[in-house]
Specification:
Blueprint: H1 2-10, E1 17-22, H2 27-33, E2 42-47, H3 52-61, E3 69-72, H4 82-93, E4 98-104, E5 111-112, E6 118-120, E7 128-130, E8 134-137, H5 138-147, H6 156-162, E9 167-171, H7 182-201
Parallel strand pairs: 1-2, 4-9
Antiparallel strand pairs: 3-8, 4-7, 4-8, 5-6
Helix pairs in contact: 5-6
Length: about 200
């Protein structure tokens, strides 16, 4: 999944450097996956931290000084279309400090208490399921990480929200789904097979 995710970013042609934050024990193994660099982007592997937030913070420290737009992407979303990557970057370059792709929520959402009893039903028309890559002006993301101290943020947009930064939402893509369950893996394999067939016909 990691290789597919990196190639998806590189193929967008708006990403020229991919920094992978990997577990320290796996650094050599991950680097071996990218001995042959993907076309269009350099890949650098660094040691991640104990949490997702720590890993992003460490990756930020490795960026060259001239990088002004940063994308944060989950390797668990290996099939993100290149056009979605490009769209996120374009919105940051238009002046938004933070941009996230998202899809409308189609299921009814219930809020429950500690006893699993329903205590509320949010209006799903105002809810979105957030995807990655999330895009940021580098200065805004670095400031948000510098101010964070709990390590509990589930995404980087939450960190910049705490700093009062407006987060712009754009349309996500169904193919940018997260692979977390066995069924997701089946869907990913089917989509890959479809893409290969399309390329073969083309």
């Amino acid at each position: 999944m990691l290789v597919h995710a990196v190639h998806a970013l590189a193929s967008s042609r708006v990403v020229d450097l991919v920094v992978i934050a990997a577990p320290e024990a796996d650094l050599d193994q991950v680097r071996a996956l990218f001995v042959e660099q993907p076309a269009g982007a350099e890949v650098v592997v660094v040691a991640g931290g104990a949490t997702r937030q720590d890993s992003v913070a460490r990756a930020l420290l490795t960026l060259p000084a001239d990088v002004d737009v940063v994308l944060v992407h989950d390797a668990a979303r290996p099939l993100v279309p290149s056009e979605l990557v490009s769209a996120v970057v374009a919105e940051v370059r238009r002046g938004h400090q933070a941009v996230i792709p998202a899809l409308p929520v189609t299921d009814t959402i219930k809020q429950v208490n500690a006893a699993d009893q329903v205590v509320g039903t949010p209006d799903r028309s105002a809810l979105r399921a957030v995807q990655t890559p999330q895009g940021f002006a580098r200065a805004a993301l670095q400031a948000a990480h510098a101010a964070a101290d709990d390590g509990l943020a589930t995404d980087d947009a939450a960190l910049v929200e705490r700093q009062g930064v407006v987060v712009q939402v754009i349309a996500g893509h169904e193919e940018a789904f997260k692979v977390t369950r066995p069924l997701d893996l089946v869907l990913a394999e089917a989509l890959l097979a479809k893409r290969r067939a399309t390329r073969a016909i083309g």
